[in-house]
């Protein structure tokens, strides 16, 4: 049950969505609602420490940077499929003279891949922000570039799943690009002119939204420290520092 102040915010959101012509609120998940980059860092650091320990000369941070560079270099081939993480682990082991196929390495890689069954924490204020957005009555769809079962787990473990009407995960072997968004608009029979898009990535949220004729004033970009999401800045798009600022941005915009 929302208190009077938060109920007032929900009512203002209802009015704002009506004024904007928005009937569907699309929301990215990774690094917008939950800190997935932090989770990657934790798991990759653990594996990097293993490689550095066996190498005996290299610093674990250098190993993790090597893995990160490998991931970025492999995106054009693997997109964000889990293969990309395992391959970065193999390349790091090869570069630093560690037997990737030893029993110990196999165990460490298995632990690394447990990332895909783990859930990162939500950013501060996300639960409260989603609560008032949901209370506004707008239809809410998660648009993620992760398998749907993993996305549901991330949302559920942070108490967020109940706010979503649908969960959609773009095939991890493909790009979250203009055609992917166009497919989703068709799948849910949504006119892009009546959609709002909120996400952290210029390349996979903002740019494809504009390509599909989502109105610029109905796109909000959540700032992030995630390097890949900061590539390709587009002028004229409203930005907020944290997702918790989204309700206020919608009302004031």
From TrEMBL:
GO molecular function: phosphoglycolate phosphatase activity
GO biological-process terms attached to the record: DNA repair
Source superkingdom: Bacteria
Matching PANTHER family: PHOSPHOGLYCOLATE PHOSPHATASE
Name this polypeptide is given: Haloacid dehalogenase
Species per Swiss-Prot/TrEMBL record: Candidatus Woesebacteria bacterium RIFCSPHIGHO2_12_FULL_41_24
């Amino acid at each position: 049950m929302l208190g009077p102040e938060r109920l007032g915010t929900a009512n203002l959101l209802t009015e704002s969505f009506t004024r904007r012509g928005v009937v569907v609120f699309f929301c990215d998940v990774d690094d917008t609602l939950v800190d997935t980059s932090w989770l990657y860092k934790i798991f990759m650091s653990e594996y990097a420490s293993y490689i550095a320990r066996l190498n005996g000369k290299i610093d674990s941070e250098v190993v993790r940077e090597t893995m990160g560079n490998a991931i970025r270099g492999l995106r054009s081939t693997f997109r964000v499929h889990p293969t990309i993480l395992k391959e970065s682990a193999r390349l790091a082991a090869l570069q630093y003279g560690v037997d990737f196929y030893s029993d110990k390495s196999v165990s460490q890689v298995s632990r690394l891949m447990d990332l895909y069954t783990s859930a990162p924490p939500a950013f501060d204020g996300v639960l409260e922000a989603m609560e008032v957005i949901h209370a506004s009555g707008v239809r809410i769809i998660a648009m993620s570039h992760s398998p749907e079962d993993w996305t549901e787990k991330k949302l559920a473990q942070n108490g967020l799943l109940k706010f979503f009407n649908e969960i959609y995960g773009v095939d991890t072997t493909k790009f979250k690009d203009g055609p992917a968004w166009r497919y989703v608009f068709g799948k849910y029979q949504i006119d892009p002119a009546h959609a709002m898009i909120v996400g952290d990535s210029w390349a996979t949220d903002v740019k494809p939204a504009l390509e599909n004729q989502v109105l610029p004033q109905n796109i909000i970009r959540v700032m992030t420290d995630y390097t890949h999401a900061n590539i390709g800045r587009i002028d004229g798009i409203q930005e907020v520092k944290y997702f918790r600022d989204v309700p206020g941005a919608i009302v004031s915009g």
